[in-house]
Structures are given as structure tokens and as C-alpha cells.
């Protein structure tokens, strides 16, 4: 597996996952290069792809989004894998990692083959795999052309395709046990439902996900807006989001937000740290802008 060292390759791994530099001794095995699907790009629309995937993907809890930064277009999938042991011992970590890689590879194939426009519209597919307690186990990106065709048939070959991913995060240590929630707290699922109420359902490229990793407990939020409305939208939407996530247990350390235009191009990326979240509604002197479109 190729490990990224602070490479700005997709919004989801910018800044935070790049801090988790990993070492790998695995050598990618030779593979057959996938033949690109030939599709008229004029007939493909990224928001239509999202709508189709949201309806047809056979997952329980997931978020699918698209974004673009510095010319790279990425289809992002955050997925809860109930087969990963959220309370794994140190000896069980390798099995969990293998499971996460297997699911990431299978999910990438599913995204690619579920909609013929995926290979035409996107430079990368980026799966993020968490357990039922939302502990991160795997995040990475792969070009659709790096998924060998035909798809391998057995699990060992599937996991071997993981060598072709550029890795953003791969868990190497045990998770932190979740403490009992305090009175008035809420689950991620409850907060997520309320977050969506602040955005029109017609806006396809809106989504939220929750990841506990080596950086901390992180809420990720992405939404689209028109560029002329950006200044007003960033204030109103950040206030709404921050209001809804304060009750989450465990408490978020960071709110990472990504605002894109209607075509998915990133306009602003930033973070509201824990002290800002807890200072609601006086959050704006704590907001840190990480990226702005030039």
C-alpha cells in the first residue's frame, strides 16, 4: 500500500488524516489494469450519481458525497461495518484491519460498477470504514483505473487489491472504550437526523459523518451552496451544525467542514475546534480556515 505523507489528494484526508503517517513493508502485487467504461460525459451529472447511489447502495449506515480540490474529483463513501469488533484487543487488530480493507475494496468496486458515470466523473474513490462505535479503521483513495478487472473472486485477492490504495488512515492501536453517556446527551444517529433538517432534501451533495481516530473525535460536514451566498451560508450553517452536535456522546473534538459549489468544487474548508463548539453560539473567533478557493 502506498502511504500518503501530507499529500493534499482529497478533501476528506486533508490536514487530519495526513498527520497519521504510516510505514508499510508490503509490496503491491502485479495486477491487471481495469478498462475504463466509455460513457458520454455530457450525460453524466455528479448529483444524479449521488441520488442513484443513495437509493441503491446495500449498506445500513453510510454517507456518500463528491468534492473537487485542485482539479481532483473524488467520490467519498463513509461506511459503518458491523463486522468489525469495536472492542478489539491488540491481538485482534490485524483481523479488524483486514476486514476494513476487504470492505473498502468491495465498496469501491460496488461504487464503480453501480453507476457507469463514476469512472467518467471521478478521479478517485475514497472509502472511510468505521466500526459501530465510529472508530476509524481505514481510509484511503484509489483511482478507478487501479481496480483490476474482472473483480477478484476470493477474499485474499480482494484484500490484496488494497495494496493499490493510497492510505490516509489505518488503525494500529486499540480503541478507547466508550463511557456511559451523561443526561441530555445524544447519539450520532440522532444528531445526524437533526443536521439534515437544516438543509433542503433537494441538495444532494450534503452529508455528515463521525470518526474517532488518532486525531480525536471528529464530526465531518459537507454542504453545497452558490458562491454568491457563501458568506451568509457559512455563518448560518455553521451555527446550525454546531448547535446540533453539542449533545453528541462522546463529545466532538473537531467539526471539520467543507463547503462546495453546485458542481462540487471546494470553496472553503475549515475546522471548529472543541473550544469553539462548546462556546456556541460564539464560535466564529475560534474557526480556523484551512483552505479557500483562489
Q: Indicate the overall shape.
A: globular
Per DSSP E runs of 2 or more residues, the count of β-strands stands at 11
| Structure classification | alpha/beta
| Gap between N and C termini | 33 Å
Q: Main β-sheet, in a few words?
A: 6 strands, mixed
* Helical amount: 25-40%
- List the secondary-structure elements in sequence, H or E: EHEEHHEEHEHEEHEEHE
Q: What's this model, at a glance?
A:
By secondary structure, the protein is of the alpha/beta class. The chain has seven helices and eleven strands. Helix 2 packs across helix 4 and helix 5 runs antiparallel to helix 6 (230-245).
Q: Can you walk me through this structure?
A:
- The protein is of the alpha/beta class and 294 residues long.
- Helices cover 25% and strands 24% of the residues.
- It has helices at 46-56, 93-114, 118-121, 155-161, 188-196, 230-245, 274-278; strands at residues 2-3, 62-69, 72-80, 124-130, 136-141, 166-170, 207-212, 217-224, 254-260, 266-273, 288-292.
- The strands form two sheets. A six-stranded mixed β-sheet has the order 1-6-5-4-3-2, covered by helices on one side.
- It has two domains: 2-170, no CATH class; 188-292, GMP Synthetase, Chain A, domain 3 (2-Layer Sandwich), CATH 3.30.300.
- Helix 2 crosses helix 4 (155-161) and helix 5 packs antiparallel against helix 6 (230-245).
Amino acid at each position: 500500500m502506498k502511504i500518503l505523507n501530507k499529500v493534499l489528494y482529497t478533501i476528506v484526508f486533508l490536514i487530519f488524516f495526513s498527520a497519521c503517517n504510516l510505514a508499510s513493508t508490503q509490496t503491491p502485487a502485479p495486477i491487471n489494469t481495469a478498462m475504463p467504461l466509455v460513457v458520454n460525459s455530457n450525460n453524466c451529472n455528479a448529483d444524479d450519481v449521488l441520488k442513484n447511489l443513495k437509493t441503491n447502495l446495500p449498506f445500513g449506515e453510510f454517507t456518500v458525497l463528491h468534492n473537487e480540490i485542485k482539479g481532483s474529483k473524488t467520490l467519498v463513501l463513509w461506511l459503518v461495518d458491523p463486522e468489525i469488533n469495536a472492542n478489539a484487543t491488540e491481538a485482534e487488530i490485524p483481523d479488524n484491519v483486514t476486514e476494513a480493507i476487504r470492505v473498502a475494496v468491495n465498496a469501491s468496486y460496488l461504487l464503480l460498477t453501480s453507476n457507469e458515470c463514476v469512472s467518467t466523473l471521478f478521479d478517485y474513490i475514497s472509502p472511510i470504514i468505521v466500526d459501530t462505535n465510529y472508530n476509524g479503521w481505514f481510509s484511503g483513495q484509489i483511482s478507478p483505473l487501479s481496480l483490476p478487472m474482472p473483480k477478484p473472486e476470493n477474499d485474499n485477492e480482494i484484500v490484496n487489491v488494497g495494496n493499490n490504495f493510497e492510505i490516509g488512515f489505518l488503525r494500529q492501536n486499540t480503541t478507547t472504550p466508550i463511557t456511559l453517556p451523561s443526561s441530555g446527551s445524544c447519539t450520532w444517529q440522532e444528531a445526524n437526523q437533526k443536521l439534515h433538517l437544516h438543509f433542503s432534501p433537494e441538495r444532494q451533495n450534503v452529508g455528515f459523518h463521525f470518526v474517532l481516530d488518532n486525531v480525536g473525535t471528529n464530526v465531518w460536514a459537507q454542504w453545497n451552496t452558490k458562491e454568491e451566498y457563501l458568506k451568509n451560508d457559512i455563518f448560518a450553517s455553521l451555527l446550525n451544525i454546531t448547535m446540533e452536535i453539542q449533545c453528541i456522546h462522546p463529545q466532538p473534538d473537531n467539526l471539520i467542514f467543507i463547503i462546495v459549489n453546485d458542481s462540487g468544487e471546494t470553496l472553503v474548508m475549515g475546522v471548529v475546534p472543541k473550544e469553539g463548539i462548546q462556546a456556541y453560539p460564539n464560535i466564529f473567533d475560534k474557526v480556523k480556515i484551512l483552505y479557500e478557493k483562489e
